[in-house]
Amino acid sequence: MSLVMQGTWNVSVKSKNASFPQRFRITGAATGNGSHVGATATAPVLVSGASWTITVEAQSGKEWVASAMRFKTPVAVGSSVRLDIESDDGGGSDQDFDDLVLTCSMTTSAADFVVYGHATAYSGLCLFNPCWRHHLVIDSVAQLELALKNSAIRAALEKLYPEVVLRPGPKNPPDPGPLATFTPLILPTPRSPALPAKVMQVTQTKAAETTRQLVIAKAPVSSLLDTALTTQLGRLLDGYLRVPLRCTTTTLGNYALRFQEYDRTSDELSGGAYTGTGDRETLGQTATDAFGNYVFRFSRSIGDIVGEALGDVAIGEDATVQALPDVIAQVLGAGAIPAAETPCHFNVGPLTRIDICVPATSIVLPTTCIDNRILTFIGKISLTSSLNSLDATGRISAASTAGSAPTIQCGVWRGNLDLWGCFGNPNVAAYTVRSRPLGAGPGDWLFHAAEERREVGGGLSKKIGPFFDVPLAVPLDLTPIGKVPAPRYLNAEIDASIVQPGAYLKATLGASAFAPGSYEVRIDAYNAAGDFLTGEQITLFVDNRWPEVAISDITLAGVPVNIGGSGCTLQTLGPAELSGDLTVRFKVDHQSGAILNYTLGVSRCNEGVDFPTAHVGGGDPSFTWVRDASVDCASPPNFRQGTPEDPDNDGSGFVTTVLAPVAPWLGASELFTILRVGVSYQWRATNGYSNASMVSFGPLVWGIQK
Q1: pLDDT at 392
Q2: Fewest Cβ atoms nearer than 10 Å: which of 121, 151, 375, 517?
Q3: What is the CATH number of domain 3-108?
Q4: 3-state SS of 70-92?
Q5: Architecture in CATH for domain 548-705
Q6: Which residues contact residue 593 at a Cβ distance below 8 angstroms, ignoring those fewer than 6 apart?
């Protein structure tokens, strides 16, 4: 595979211990691009550029084949940083990664930083992040829910993060892209009772001699919590980490990473808890090697000076002062969208090890083949889990929450759908994806032909299709009839340059354009010559329609309310009418029968709760769907349109509901208010990553007075 580098490095051959001819190839750089002989006599190559890749290749016959590569640990040597890259050409069974060894060296400066380390994902009975030793770190919603059950942790959270105690759940820090990960929570322990004070790097030159000094910009802040509670947290963390087999970690090999510089908020600078809500600046992207190792270089110019709030710490007239950066690392998912992020690493030095450890539940996507299946996930919903199933019409019932997948019963699919899968066969060179309405004929297949690109590290991507250069033996209803041109996609699983998890994303099916109904979706694999190898077919019920919702008539105390136009009716109520009935004619209708719930709501002015009413007659003002396991998803009562199935519907899908106020619409001292009538509803639909959310229709409003 290729490894991603940043900035300016001198690349030289350290050693060669292979019978095959070797070379290294530089691409994407500003200088140094091209193929270079893999021999110790080769002159060092100066390579520069914001982000570039390096690939070691060995000659096998007439072909040059990419070798397996891995980063070694960078080391500081005098005024330089040196990094070895080892490779194995696969020509023997030694796997000692000494076939060609390169050394990359850079000259250090006050503005250059190199971070490196190993990336893993943890899973199992992990009450906290198992990779942090100085802080107790909570970095998922599931952990937070468990942590709140512990009295000591809850007390700490109530003090430092009261908002998550009241409203636990994901937060969205300001960040490029739709980051939906949980912002990690950092709790102190005796090893680190407070966030570290901001540290400056002071560089001064006198008599041609450069010296550097680290200076704390402010006095260290006091402990975030009292000593007793901090000690309790430390004991809890230490005791938990000594319990074996609770957590397991998996190497994140060939995954894309993004790094951000974090600006602490004023509260954090003053000794408050880390929130993750400070300003962020993206420093760049890189990728791990196949063994989870990474190296990332970035620069902070002298213009990145610390603000006045941290004080003047210069130690000489010719000195420059620069804040050491605080850095957050993110593991990227498909489309370079952050899937998980680390807590902030404070005061990162010029050469710093940062081991990345994130919850596997945030990034679980297929990386191995399962049960000889090709299609394994749609979004995050597993197609292979015993807890999930598709019925004959393609409606999905999913109870597995692995990977933070949404759960749903008898749901329809909506929007564009990410099809994840695994061939697990190096002979698969390409594949096709197609769909047709369920029950249609061989000539009704429609090929997926949208452009698909995959990340290759460093923020770059490459096209994997469609290509039309090789005729394919496409099976029409499982019987190949010659070879025909068809849009094929290259098998990213055998392309070592593509970072995870993109190698297993087969296609983003444009189902948002599908008419409502059941569709057969098929994927077929071919060898390099276009011969058919294997295929798989599933049925999906797609419906992108929102439920039809309407309120046609409102009557209060026997008087029709004008709900047409943009005006607002003002209705005067006599004493006998202040407790008059409210009559509402409304409809909630999803023709594919995927209604989950609906509620007719009545409120006043800006009151945050419904005004208490009693159901007097007519259609039920609320409904919540419950699955009947004795029948299939397409049959009543699992098939539920909404009000059209209400026994009191009027034949057009509308119901008329009569509500009586529990107390008069206006109290004894109230002369005027605004009445609001609306319908809230939700339907059983998913794109595999999240379910359709609750939506409100209205409210329709009018004024009432005595």
Answers
A1: 94
A2: 151
A3: 2.60.120.400
A4: EECCCEEECCEEEEEEEEECCCC
A5: Sandwich (2.60)
A6: 634, 636, 638, 639, 640, 641
